[in-house]
């Protein structure tokens, strides 16, 4: 498989928002090249010597990079990323030069190098996310293990927005529940819901590559009997009443389909949403509340927000 490097020259102010856009487009992570790193003092430990090459950093602004698989719809994905970045100006975010470059990279050089940075991580009271190539033994009897092989295109389950969603699911999923996961990506939230006792989980994503990755991860975790994965645009065609809808996607997308969420969540059921940058918190909360939900809690992690809302009875 071939991969493309998406590089955006922007400002420090826009880094978090653009990182979120790239995550939602299917990137497993981002590389941030900030000239400030050249000036930052570092402790010399165990004889280590830090020597950064100024040539690797932009003279002005910050460069954010991500990697996406080359596919027939890559051009549309890149165009969507560009449009979303331009739209940040509507929220008074300075995007600077906003210079985007797309180049092809050699999979053999990059595809496996990132694995050395991905280790088992305990992300909640019960959940530990473990890469499939790690030999990990639970440290407690009630620990729930989610095994992931995210590949280059999908999240490792440790991004703040994913962590908050899993923590919320841990609190609200009950045995026998029906859960709908919108924008499933690697499938980590659907796997988590199934491990928590949900009887049925529907995992949805518009990206065919994400659907394939989610199916494989669901198989790896042995929850195929509970989780159904489908390529789908948000909640189009989904009508069965759900106990919980969880969506880890862009704030503007959350606001665009909250009405549809309200139509399928049972009275007393929950809408758990994340992928929301802090500046858009109130706007998203207002949209959710306007559709018959009561905001029960707002969770914060770094600069990200998750909102837990209960449908009025």
- Share of β-strand residues: 25-35%
Tally of extended strands? 14
The CATH class label of the largest domain is: Alpha Beta
What is the terminal separation in angstroms? 49 Å
Q: How many DSSP H or I helices? A: 8
What does this structure look like?
A seven-stranded mixed β-sheet has the order 10-9-8-11-12-14-13, sandwiched between helices. It is built from eight helices and 14 strands. Strand 9 (about 200-205), helix 6 (about 210-220) and strand 10 (about 225-230) form a beta-alpha-beta unit. The chain has two domains: about 5-105, Alpha-Beta Plaits (2-Layer Sandwich); about 115-310, Rossmann fold (3-Layer(aba) Sandwich), CATH 3.40.50. The longest helix is centred in the N-terminal third of the chain and has 14 residues, at about 75-85. The chain is globular, with a radius of gyration of 20 Å. The protein is of the alpha/beta class. Mean pLDDT is about 85; it is low at about 35-55. Helix 4 runs parallel beside helix 5 (about 190-195) and helix 7 runs parallel beside helix 8 (about 280-290). It is about 25% helix and about 30% strand.
List keywords for this structure.
313 residues, Alpha-Beta Plaits, seven-stranded mixed beta sheet, four-stranded antiparallel beta sheet, 14 strands, 29% strand
Summarize the structure.
By secondary structure, the protein is α/β, with parallel strands linked by helices. The chain has helices at 15-24, 74-87, 107-110, 160-172, 188-195, 208-220, 251-264, 281-289; strands at 3-10, 31-33, 62-69, 99-105, 121-122, 127-131, 144-148, 178-182, 200-205, 227-231, 242-248, 265-277, 293-301, 304-311. It has two domains: 3-107, Alpha-Beta Plaits, CATH 3.30.70; 116-311, Rossmann fold (3-Layer(aba) Sandwich).
């Amino acid at each position: 498989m071939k991969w493309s490097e998406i590089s955006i020259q922007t400002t420090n102010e826009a880094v978090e928002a653009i990182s979120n856009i790239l995550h939602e487009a299917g990137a497993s992570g981002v590389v941030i090249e900030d000239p400030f790193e050249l000036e930052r003092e570092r402790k010399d430990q165990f004889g280590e010597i830090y020597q950064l090459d100024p040539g690797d950093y932009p003279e002005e602004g910050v460069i954010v990079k991500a990697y996406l698989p080359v596919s027939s719809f890559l051009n549309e994905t890149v165009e969507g990323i560009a449009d979303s970045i331009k739209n940040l100006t509507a929220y008074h975010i300075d995007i600077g030069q906003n210079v985007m470059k797309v180049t092809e990279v050699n999979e053999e050089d990059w595809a496996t190098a990132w694995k050395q940075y991905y280790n088992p991580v305990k992300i909640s009271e019960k959940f530990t996310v473990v890469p499939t190539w790690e030999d990990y033994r639970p440290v407690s009897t009630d620990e729930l293990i989610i095994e992931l092989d995210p590949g280059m295109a999908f999240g490792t389950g440790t991004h703040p927005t994913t962590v908050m969603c899993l923590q919320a699911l841990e609190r609200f999923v009950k045995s026998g529940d029906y859960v709908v996961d919108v924008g499933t990506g690697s499938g980590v939230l659907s796997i988590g819901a199934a491990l928590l006792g949900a009887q049925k989980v529907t995992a949805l994503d518009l990206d065919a590559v994400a659907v394939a990755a989610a199916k494989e991860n669901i198989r790896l975790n042995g929850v195929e009997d509970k989780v159904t994965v489908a390529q789908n645009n948000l909640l189009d065609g989904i009508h069965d009443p759900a106990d919980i809808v969880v969506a880890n996607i862009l704030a503007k997308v959350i606001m665009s389909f909250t009405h549809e969420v309200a139509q399928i969540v049972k009275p007393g059921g929950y809408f758990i949403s994340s992928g929301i940058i802090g500046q858009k918190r109130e706007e998203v909360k207002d949209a959710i509340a306007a559709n018959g939900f009561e905001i029960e809690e707002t969770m914060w992690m770094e600069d990200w927000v998750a909102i837990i809302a209960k449908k009025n009875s």
